[in-house]
Write a structure and sequence with these properties.
Chain lengths: 303, 232
């Protein structure tokens, strides 16, 4: 039996459900929106023994051979918009989430991905330093609270971009002359500036040892927020090997690696996403990523 | 120089500083991340500068770091506009994670993906790791039925280890067990709790970012730093 945890409307989860249905593979879908209907009872001895119940049906945790999870922040759900943090419902939701994450961290089964490993991109410069150990180029990067340092860095690099340091989603933007008046604001919080690296973007999805590469052509600094063309491609074997090795080192069975290939043929790594929303690449570039995820989950189940 | 990373409201952390006799201590709080003076190029992270206690300093002056802060919390960033505090706290935490990881000096405890001070493991994981070290573990029962009922550690014995030594006079067997757990967690500083039972002490919980206070803690931190090359 496979356990899926996430939102019904979330396309990556929906695609995996579809693939499991096509395979006739039984699974339990724990819809995060129904969190108030979920009950859990686990004893750690220290191996987890217990059950979870949803809609009145109880499932033995020992029956789960694989887990795929993509939880969202329940506090953003409409069901919780009018409830206080002290409400019974809020406490129940936090409790369920914490218990499921705790279970997923230690469950003696395949978990895609364990919650503790999903913290891996909480610090982009730190993650980049790991990526460089696998032979990827890393853009020259300045972290600073000093406006003069930014100006010097821009002079030495030419074009530079700025973006968040943490895993917070931010739009990558090119620093322009008209931004100079705002540079004094960097003193309030360390800010990340990077040399602008020319070239095409590549998103490489790693599923176990399988690799799915998508080339993205865009003239925007951040293709996610601009016009872009997605096409399936094949990256050189040494690049796919590095992607697989870096993901494995981070304990990830599924990862989305953001790369850029310069006109000179150098490969830069920007980020390794531990919970990738792979579906837009699957749909736009006709990649069989959800099939690979379903196969990985089923393989463990068959074993 | 020993940099102590702590919350500005952690008065026990600030009170540790005068106890460091051989290392020049400097307190670094989240407010220092809202000061001009931080310059870190990731090509050469140790050649930049940082700001602490109102001064800009050379990163190469840092001989050791004691972290007593698992993350920067938005509630502490009162100088920042309220709507930006949560974002700023996450950015500052991410920055410190990189900065502390990039240092070549001893960092007690080195940051991990989940915390600025050692691993931020859930109790389930600590139990698993403790069991893998051969420690007898307490059974932990979690259920939605009794949500809000916290684990009761009142009857537990707490052992806090810094380097090879425990603070105070802890039982030798518990010290040995805590050292094994600290090795498995790759930390130099660890606080572990044990419940006394008829079968002997059972491990129940651990904390890689323990609360430190007093001269005895400072002495062990300093010993740890000096043994690892600080104060060369």
């Amino acid at each position: 039996m496979i356990l899926l945890w996430g939102l019904e409307a979330d396309t990556p989860i929906a695609l995996v459900r579809k693939r499991l249905d096509e395979r006739g593979q039984p699974y339990v879908f724990l819809n995060q929106a129904d969190v108030l209907d979920v009950t859990i009872d686990i004893r750690y001895e220290p191996r987890p023994i217990g059950w979870l119940a949803v809609d009145g049906t109880r499932y033995d945790l020992g029956a789960f051979s694989a887990v795929y999870l993509r939880p969202y922040d329940f506090r953003q759900f409409p069901e919780f918009a009018d409830r206080s943090a002290n409400s019974t419902e809020w406490k129940h939701a936090i409790g369920v989430e914490d218990m499921l994450c705790g279970y997923a961290d230690v469950a003696p089964t395949l978990v895609v991905n364990r919650p503790s490993t999903m913290l891996a991109n909480n610090s982009k410069p730190y993650q980049c330093s790991l990526a460089s150990e696998f032979g990827f180029h890393i853009p020259r990067t300045l972290l600073t609270t000093d406006e003069d340092a930014v100006r010097e860095f821009r002079r030495s690099c030419g074009a530079i971009v700025y973006k968040s340091i943490s895993g917070q989603r931010s739009i990558v933007k090119r620093l322009a002359d008209e931004d100079d008046g705002r540079l004094a604001d960097v003193r309030w919080c360390p800010t990340q500036f990077q040399e602008a690296v020319p070239g095409d973007d590549y998103r490489v999805h790693v599923v176990g040892r399988e690799v799915f590469a998508t080339r993205v052509r865009s003239s925007d600094a951040d293709y996610r927020y601009g016009a872009a063309v997605y096409e399936p491609t094949v990256v050189p074997e040494d690049i796919s090997t590095r992607c697989v090795a870096a993901s494995a080192r981070m304990g990830l069975h599924l990862a989305g690696v953001d790369l850029r290939r310069t006109p000179h043929g150098d490969w830069f790594c920007f980020e390794i996403n531990p919970c990738p929303a792979y579906s837009c690449y699957e749909i736009a570039a006709d990649q069989a990523i959800s099939d690979a995820i379903a196969d990985m989950l089923c393989l463990r189940t068959a074993a | 120089m020993l940099v102590v990373v702590a919350s500005a409201v952690d008065s026990d952390a600030a009170a540790l500083l005068p106890h460091f006799r051989r290392l020049e201590p400097l307190l670094l709080t989240p407010a220092d991340l809202s000061r001009s003076g931080w310059r870190v190029l990731t090509e050469r992270p140790c050649e930049g500068s940082f700001a602490a206690s109102g001064r800009q300093r050379d990163i190469r002056e840092i001989e050791g770091v004691l972290t007593l802060l698992p993350a920067v919390f938005s509630q502490e960033l009162l100088a920042i506009e309220a709507s930006a505090r949560v974002y700023a706290a996450q950015e500052m935490t991410a920055f410190l994670r990189y900065f502390l990881k990039s240092l070549h000096c001893p960092v007690l405890n080195a940051p991990t993906d989940g915390s600025l001070c050692g691993p931020m493991w859930r109790p389930e994981r600590w139990l698993q790791v403790a069991a893998s070290c051969g420690l007898p573990t307490d059974v932990w029962h979690r259920r939605t039925k009794n949500l809000g009922v916290d684990q009761d550690y009142k009857e537990c014995i707490q052992v806090t280890l810094i380097g090879e030594h425990a603070i105070g006079d802890a039982d030798a067997d518990l010290q040995r067990k805590t050292k094994a757990l600290a090795r498995a967690a790759s930390v130099g500083m660890l606080s572990a709790r044990y419940r006394q039972t008829a079968e002997g002490p059972m491990f129940c919980a651990a904390e890689a970012c323990p609360h430190l206070s007093g001269a005895a803690s400072a002495r062990l931190v300093e010993e740890y730093m000096v043994a690892r090359g600080a104060l060369v």
